[in-house]
């Protein structure tokens, strides 16, 4: 009951944020150099379409009415048409989301699980040579530009060794169903997932190392040891459980940024996901698609933040609901 | 430079990652600045053969237009550093100003601004930058502004939290109370003390900015007129098969610069908070020893605890702190010992040594601890029998502890009842749920916790109740010995008194042996048969309670007693010690109290005093112990009516 | 009795009185906290008034209002008979030069980036009391006055190099360097070691003897209050329960709470014998959700039905001695005797 009330309250708080994001979007279109109608319809669009755009966005009316019209469009789920393909933007985006989720989701799961585990092990021997080395290594990992790491992986495993495919999600002449298809996709996933996961891994190692070592220094851990709990249980029951709280928060935010986190990786590997779509849209200056993708991504982040809050509240009795 | 800044710098350089990253960063900066005078070919000059691999002439080869890659990498460093410094500065300037305003003035200003900071957390920032650059056209200044536009809330949040803590700092309050205007307080007290983490975070911001710019350039959204590492990789990608060196060199440069910045930030952070690097951890493996030969079975009069020449040393960097420095005492079964001394004298360290729960930087260098006649520590090493440490067999079932701050000593995310249940089940695996619940209820009732509070989380209890819960937890397995480390510090007077009474009652009822640690002579006076006074790691005097108050034979004990104002006696001027530093004490060659002792002589400064036995278990470590013992402390005086009645 | 130099008149302080719409909507509004409820106290020149109470009793709030670091929700602060409650700007600064404050935590009292000398000179500069050239001499003189010798080397030290006792002496010096008439000291020794405490208390008493400064001394320890003060006020949950001359208040306490406090002081003389404690019915005390009637009744061993219904007024029980208990006269003559017998 209290959790529900909390949820509703948090939901309520999201509205101004959502509005803010829409306004940013709106402001950007209007501040950008060039005619708004051309931005929205695309250069060289036929005059008829241009006119319909003008009308639906109310481009002849005062600015605040335009904002109203824009809001109205979005509330109806209408993000306009791509001027490359003339398909509704929302459909184009929806079509690309699964590929991105597959890639980024896999990377995130791998990176967070491995990262938390490695960080936790390092936290048991803080300040040791191994700890310092792993810390340095993980900092270096997330200092690598992900697109460059992708290139280097391609150079080594696709170009030189020829072990793995360098781009796309499926082989052109490969199977389209069954186990063969799955294996084909997996083969294509290995390199991009590795690139993305490597960079995220660094972050989770750092986070988990910091969080676990902080909990291990808490007096209640000393109490647990004085009571006689074996070290393994101290680690799982006390240290990890409590250290997960800050990690959950970051994970939640990361989850929200999942869709946009892979733009560069998808570009390098020509992965047919949302990121690649955005890249293509930028190259062809397909403004409606770019804007639409931005909105969708922002709303995903908000949703993830909301869920994280709830999860946190459920995990930590100290959170005041 | 203030001592803190100099110390931080020294500590940063002292660590390998710190020194390394600073060196790499400085070399890159120097190279970028020196680019025009290095005698390199013009980075845009298409003067050479295309696609040359690295050679003596072109160390990093040439690209698809025949340009020298080394020269392009060097000039690219200028762009990277411009972006880094520009974006970080802008972000810090905007962010700290708004963050400081939000934190300092609070109220609705803070409410509004914090909302805005939070919103930025929910925006996919890389994408927003993409959007801006895509819409407005690519140029370096715009890129810098766009990056700063998305990173300033990070600086703002940091500054806000800094200011919030600083605002409650006493010296800020004091300056305001002294009549200082707000701008003065901000400029003189808040900013100088709050800026360090923000500058540290600046290195991280710089790294983020460089990666973002490189990402943009890689997507073809870089400034076309400049040599950027990102755009070099962008071009290199298309010639990956033919000329891999085109993309390798700029990528390595990026990695080096960003990693050095991130590592530098991390090292400075560690240098400012050294405990971040070493705190926590699992208990380290220590050398153990076998049980001594010829141990006899405990008899009825075997003391519950015997401690002999215990020494505990902390290693803090290069320093050795002898926190417990040769402590010996014996506690008979059912007896109670009060250990009194001021903070830092080693009371808690002694307690942790008895329980073997010392932190990893602590080491027992000597000493024997016997529990019920059986050695658990011998020569500073834990005794292991049949592969199991003897202390492990005693934990909580025979020897338990009450920690000082129950708020932190109880697990915050588990109910009090659950924590007791876990302890019970750990040591009595066969116990049924009903039995366990009954036992928990029994202990709760005994200690005065209402049954309705059983399922509360620690934070839901009042301070007194929480401390009671801690006591209940310590008693759940009916231990024979309880070590209570300042169990009532930080509680209110009435509750302190109630809990001390509770502990004294339980001791009698359960025939517990008790070690009660306190900084307050008064707190132990009523609860303990014997009082030991600790000073700088040693027990300087130990005696039965009546005797130590009546005939204190050590000048330090005498001051401790004479320094307490009385509620009942006449108002006499209190004794006091000069405000010197006790740190000097441990280093002293002679008596460790000589630096503050009102009776110190040359002999005291030259030679450490022996332990002088004064009979009836009274021992004092002072050259003049006998003289002091002969002269009783001031007699208690007639008490006013109210106090008399209280004692009736 | 002389005219009071500083008066707190019927102060009322409510925190979180208006939690705002958002907080209320979410049901997360902090409950309003009554930190001071009709608190009236008089400070007489050259004397010390001790305010005694446990944490959350509102003693610090009273101190913060007396220095105008915080403005009361209702009630007045009078300095030499004049209402200063709403002072701002130059007048406020002038008031601050007269009414200074010493804080609890000495380890945090000085800006770590300034030398002791710089910190001590700050109030002088702020109030333009001493020309630039004379600052150093004034600082040295003050350091001597708080018995930190050699003063020269203390003036150049950074706070991190000093011990708690030394730091608190410097904090006292900073409060006194502009020669205020009133000093509010909020638990100035509670964070110091016992053997150092008495030195700081003696120093404060010596300075009062020499300069005639007035103290409002806040403490949780009744025996410290007795040592320092001429008069004692006992606070509980935001209200003064008993007030009177120090010796009378302790020897003829008229409020059950004061009696319990006196009993709770562990006596530390050789004759200390075990006391019979009264097990108090409750122990949580918080200003949120103030009990009806007498605010002490949930914990009072003498509580009667009337105590739950009617709040006792702060009424005279002797010369300059007031207490807020329906049975003050009984308590003053018979103590808690009846209750002890009942529960023993
Ligand atoms: N983990 C630690 N590392 C280094 N020094 C420590 C540590 N814990 C305590 N010390 C030092 O050891 C001395 C004794 O501390 P402690 O046993 O906590 O004293 P007490 O309990 O009497 O206040 C102090 O100088 C303290 O600073
Ligand atoms: S030995 Fe000397 S310096 Fe030490 S306590 Fe005794 S009299 Fe003081
Ligand atoms: S009025 Fe009643 S409850 Fe209040 S203190 Fe007096 S006797 Fe106790
Ligand atoms: Mg301690």
Automatic annotation (TrEMBL), chain A:
Q: What is its main location?
A: membrane
Q: What is the protein's species of origin?
A: Oceanicola granulosus (strain ATCC BAA-861 / DSM 15982 / KCTC 12143 / HTCC2516)
- Gene3D superfamilies, per database record: MetI-like
Q: Does the keyword Membrane apply?
A: yes
Keyword GTP-binding in annotation: no
**PROSITE patterns according to UniProt:** ABC_TM1 (PS50928)
| Protein name, entry field | Putative dipeptide transport system permease protein 1
Q: Where in the cell is it found?
A: Cell membrane
Q: Which Pfam families match?
A: BPD_transp_1, BPD_transp_1_N
GO BP annotations of the record are:
transmembrane transport
Keyword terms: Cell membrane, Membrane, Transmembrane, Transmembrane helix, Transport
Q: Can you tell me which family this protein belongs to? A: Belongs to the binding-protein-dependent transport system permease family.
Q: How does it sit in the membrane?
A: Multi-pass membrane protein
Which cellular component terms (GO) are annotated to the entry? Answer: plasma membrane
TM helices/strands, residue ranges: 7-29, 101-122, 134-159, 179-201, 243-269, 289-315
> InterPro entries recorded for this chain?
BPD_transp_1_N, MetI-like, MetI-like_sf
TrEMBL record, chain B:
Compartments where located? Cell inner membrane; Cell membrane
Q: Which SUPFAM superfamilies match?
A: MetI-like (SSF161098), P-loop containing nucleoside triphosphate hydrolases (SSF52540)
Q: Which of UniProt's keywords are assigned here?
A: ATP-binding, Cell membrane, Membrane, Nucleotide-binding, Transmembrane, Transmembrane helix, Transport
Which residue ranges does the record assign to the ABC transporter domain? 305-561
Q: Does the keyword Transmembrane helix apply?
A: yes
**Could you tell me which residue ranges the ABC transmembrane type-1 domain spans?**
77-265
Q: Which GO terms describe its cellular component?
A: plasma membrane
Residues crossing the lipid bilayer are 20-40, 79-107, 119-149, 170-191, 203-221, 242-264
GO molecular function annotations of the record: ATP binding; ATP hydrolysis activity
Q: Where is the composition biased (Low complexity)?
A: 288-299, 630-648
Instruction: Supply the NCBIfam families for this chain.
Output: oligo_HPY
Identify its protein family. Answer: Belongs to the ABC transporter superfamily. Belongs to the binding-protein-dependent transport system permease family.
Alphabetical list of PANTHER family matching this protein:
DIPEPTIDE TRANSPORT ATP-BINDING PROTEIN DPPD (PTHR43297:SF2), OLIGOPEPTIDE TRANSPORT ATP-BINDING PROTEIN APPD (PTHR43297)
Instruction: Tell me the protein's name.
Output: Peptide/opine/nickel uptake family ABC transporter, permease/ATP-binding protein
Q: Which organism is it from?
A: Oceanicola granulosus (strain ATCC BAA-861 / DSM 15982 / KCTC 12143 / HTCC2516)
From TrEMBL, chain C:
Location comes to:
Cell inner membrane
Superkingdom in the source lineage: Bacteria
Show the GO cellular component annotation of the record: plasma membrane
Q: Which UniProt keywords apply?
A: ATP-binding, Nucleotide-binding, Transport
* Matches recorded under CDD domains: ABC_NikE_OppD_transporters
- Record membrane topology: Peripheral membrane protein
Q: Which GO terms describe its biological process?
A: peptide transport; transmembrane transport
A GO term for molecular function:
ATP binding
Q: Where is this protein chiefly located?
A: membrane
Q: Per the database record, which ranges form the ABC transporter domain?
A: 6-262
* Pfam family of the protein (one): oligo_HPY
- Identify its protein family: Belongs to the ABC transporter superfamily.
In terms of NCBIfam families, this protein maps to: oligo_HPY
This protein is called what?
Probable ABC transporter ATP-binding protein
List the source organism: Oceanicola granulosus (strain ATCC BAA-861 / DSM 15982 / KCTC 12143 / HTCC2516)
Cite the source lineage.
Answer: Bacteria, Pseudomonadati, Pseudomonadota, Alphaproteobacteria, Rhodobacterales
């Amino acid at each position: 009951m209290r959790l529900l009330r909390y949820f509703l309250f948090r939901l309520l708080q999201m509205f101004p944020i959502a509005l803010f994001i829409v306004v940013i979007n709106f402001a950007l279109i209007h501040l950008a150099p060039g005619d708004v109608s051309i931005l929205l319809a695309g250069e060289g669009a036929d005059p008829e379409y241009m006119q319909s755009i003008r009308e639906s966005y109310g481009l002849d009316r005062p600015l605040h009415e335009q904002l109203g019209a824009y809001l109205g469009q979005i509330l109806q789920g209408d993000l306009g048409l791509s001027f490359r393909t003339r398909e509704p933007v929302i459909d184009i985006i929806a079509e690309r989301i699964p590929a991105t989720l597959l890639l980024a989701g896999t990377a995130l799961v791998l990176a967070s699980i491995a990262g938390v585990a490695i960080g936790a092990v390092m936290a048991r021997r803080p300040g040791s040579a191994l700890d310092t080395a792993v810390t340095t290594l993980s900092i270096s990992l997330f200092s690598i530009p992900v697109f460059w790491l992708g290139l280097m992986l391609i150079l080594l495993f696709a170009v030189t060794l020829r072990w793995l495919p360098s781009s796309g999600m499926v082989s052109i002449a490969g199977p389209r169903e069954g186990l063969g298809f799955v294996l084909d996709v997996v083969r294509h996933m290995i390199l991009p997932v590795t690139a993305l996961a490597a960079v995220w891994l660094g972050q989770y190692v750092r986070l988990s190392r910091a969080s676990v070592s902080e909990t291990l220094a808490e007096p209640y851990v000393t109490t647990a040891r004085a009571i006689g709990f074996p070290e393994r249980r101290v680690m799982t029951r006390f240290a990890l459980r409590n250290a997960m709280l800050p990690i959950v928060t970051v994970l939640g935010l990361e989850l929200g940024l999942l869709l946009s986190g892979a733009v560069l990786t998808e570009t390098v590997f020509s992965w047919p996901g949302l990121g690649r779509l955005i890249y293509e849209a930028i190259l062809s200056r397909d403004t409606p698609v770019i804007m639409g993708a931005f909105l969708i991504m922002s709303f995903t982040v908000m949703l993830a933040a909301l869920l994280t809050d709830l999860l946190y509240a459920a995990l930590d009795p100290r959170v005041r609901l | 430079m203030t001592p803190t800044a100099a110390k931080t710098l020294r500590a940063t350089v002292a660590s390998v990652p710190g020194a390394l990253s600073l060196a790499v960063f400085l070399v890159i900066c120097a190279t970028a600045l020196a680019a025009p005078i290095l005698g390199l070919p013009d980075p845009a000059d298409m003067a050479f053969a295309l696609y040359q691999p690295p050679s003596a002439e072109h160390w990093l080869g040439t690209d698809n237009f025949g340009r020298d890659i080394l020269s392009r990498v060097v000039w690219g460093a200028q762009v990277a550093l411009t972006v880094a410094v520009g974006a970080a500065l802008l972000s810090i300037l905007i962010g700290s100003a708004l963050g400081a305003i939000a934190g300092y003035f609070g109220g609705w200003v803070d409410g509004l601004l914090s909302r805005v900071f939070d919103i930025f957390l929910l925006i996919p920032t890389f994408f927003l930058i993409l959007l801006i650059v895509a819409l407005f056209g690519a140029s370096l200044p715009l890129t810098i502004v766009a990056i700063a536009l998305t990173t300033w809330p990070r600086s703002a949040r940091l500054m806000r939290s800094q200011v919030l803590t600083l605002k409650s700092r006493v010296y800020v309050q004091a300056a305001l109370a002294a009549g200082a205007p707000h701008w003065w307080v901000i400029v003189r007290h808040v900013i100088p003390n709050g800026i360090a983490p923000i500058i540290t975070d600046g290195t991280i911001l710089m790294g983020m900015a460089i990666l973002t710019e490189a990402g943009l350039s890689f997507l073809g959204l870089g400034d076309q007129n400049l040599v950027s590492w990102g755009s070099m990789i962008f071009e290199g990608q298309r010639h990956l098969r033919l000329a891999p060196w085109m993309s390798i060199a700029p990528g390595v440069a990026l990695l080096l610069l960003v990693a050095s910045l991130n590592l530098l930030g991390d090292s400075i952070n560690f240098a400012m908070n050294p405990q971040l690097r070493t705190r926590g951890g699992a208990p380290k493996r220590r050398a153990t020893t076998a049980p001594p030969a010829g141990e006899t079975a405990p008899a009825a009069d075997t003391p519950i605890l015997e401690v002999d020449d215990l020494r505990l040393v902390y290693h803090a960097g290069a320093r050795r702190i002898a926190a417990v420095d040769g402590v010996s005492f014996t506690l008979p079964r059912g007896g109670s010992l009060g250990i009194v001394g001021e903070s830092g004298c080693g009371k808690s360290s002694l307690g942790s040594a008895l329980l073997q729960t010392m932190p990893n930087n602590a080491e027992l260098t000597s000493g024997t601890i016997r529990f019920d006649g059986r050695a658990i520590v011998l020569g500073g090493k834990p005794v292991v029998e049949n592969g199991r440490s003897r202390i492990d067999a005693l934990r909580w079932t025979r020897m338990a502890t009450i920690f000082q701050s129950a708020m932190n000593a109880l697990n915050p995310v588990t109910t009090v009842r659950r924590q007791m249940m876990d302890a019970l089940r750990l040591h009595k695996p066969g116990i049924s749920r009903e039995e366990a619940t009954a036992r928990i209820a029994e202990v709760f009732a005994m200690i005065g916790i209402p049954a309705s509070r059983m399922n509360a989380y620690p934070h839901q209890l009042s301070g007194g109740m929480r401390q009671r819960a801690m006591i209940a937890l310590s008693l759940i397995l009916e231990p024979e010995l309880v070590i209570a480390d300042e169990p009532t510090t930080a509680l209110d007077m009435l509750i302190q008194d109630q809990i001390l009474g509770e502990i004294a009652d339980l001791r009698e009822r359960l025939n517990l042996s008790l070690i009660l640690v306190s900084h307050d002579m008064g707190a132990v006076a009523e609860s303990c048969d014997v009082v030991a006074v600790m000073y700088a790691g040693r027990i300087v005097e130990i005696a039965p309670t009546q005797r130590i108050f009546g005939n204190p034979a050590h000048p330090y004990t005498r001051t401790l007693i004479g320094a307490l104002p009385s509620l009942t006696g006449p108002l006499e001027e209190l004794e006091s010690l000069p405000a010197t530093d006790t740190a000097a004490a441990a280093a002293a060659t002679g008596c460790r109290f000589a630096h503050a002792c009102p009776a110190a002589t040359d002999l005291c400064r030259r030679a450490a005093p022996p332990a002088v036995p004064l009979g009836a278990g009274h021992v004092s470590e002072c050259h003049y112990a006998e003289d002091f013992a002969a002269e009783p402390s001031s007699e208690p005086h007639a008490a006013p009516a109210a106090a008399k009645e209280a004692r009736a | 009795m002389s005219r009071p130099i500083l008066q707190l008149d019927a102060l009322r302080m409510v925190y979180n009185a208006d939690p705002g719409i958002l907080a209320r909507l979410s049901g997360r509004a902090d409950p309003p906290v009554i930190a001071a409820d009709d608190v009236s106290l008089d400070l007489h020149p050259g004397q010390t008034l001790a305010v005694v109470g446990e944490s959350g009793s509102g003693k610090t709030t009273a101190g913060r209002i007396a220095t105008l670091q915080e403005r009361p929700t209702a009630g007045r602060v009078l300095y030499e008979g004049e209402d200063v409650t709403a002072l701002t700007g130059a007048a406020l600064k002038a008031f601050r030069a007269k009414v200074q404050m010493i804080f609890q935590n000495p380890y945090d009292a000085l800006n770590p980036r300034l030398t002791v000398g710089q910190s001590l000179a700050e109030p002088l500069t702020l109030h333009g009391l001493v020309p630039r050239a004379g600052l150093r001499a004034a600082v040295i003189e003050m350091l001597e006055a708080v018995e930190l010798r050699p003063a020269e080397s203390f003036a150049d030290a950074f706070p991190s190099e000093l011990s708690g006792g030394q730091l608190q002496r410097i904090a006292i010096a900073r409060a006194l360097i502009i020669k205020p008439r009133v000093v509010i000291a909020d638990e100035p020794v509670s964070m110091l070691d016992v053997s150092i405490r008495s030195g700081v208390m003696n120093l404060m008493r010596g300075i009062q003897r020499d300069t005639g400064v007035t103290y409002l001394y806040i403490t949780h320890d009744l025996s410290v209050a007795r040592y320092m003060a001429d008069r004692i006020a006992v606070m509980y949950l935001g209200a003064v329960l008993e007030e009177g001359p120090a010796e009378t208040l302790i020897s003829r306490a008229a409020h059950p709470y004061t009696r319990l406090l006196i009993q709770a002081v562990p006596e530390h003389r050789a004759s200390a014998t075990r006391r019979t404690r009264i097990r108090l019915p409750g122990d949580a005390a918080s200003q949120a959700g103030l009990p009806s009637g007498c605010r002490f009744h949930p914990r009072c061993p003498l509580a009667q039905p009337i105590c739950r219904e009617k709040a006792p007024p702060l009424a005279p029980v002797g010369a300059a001695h007031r207490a807020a208990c329906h049975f003050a006269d009984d308590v003053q003559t018979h103590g808690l005797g009846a209750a002890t017998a009942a529960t023993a």
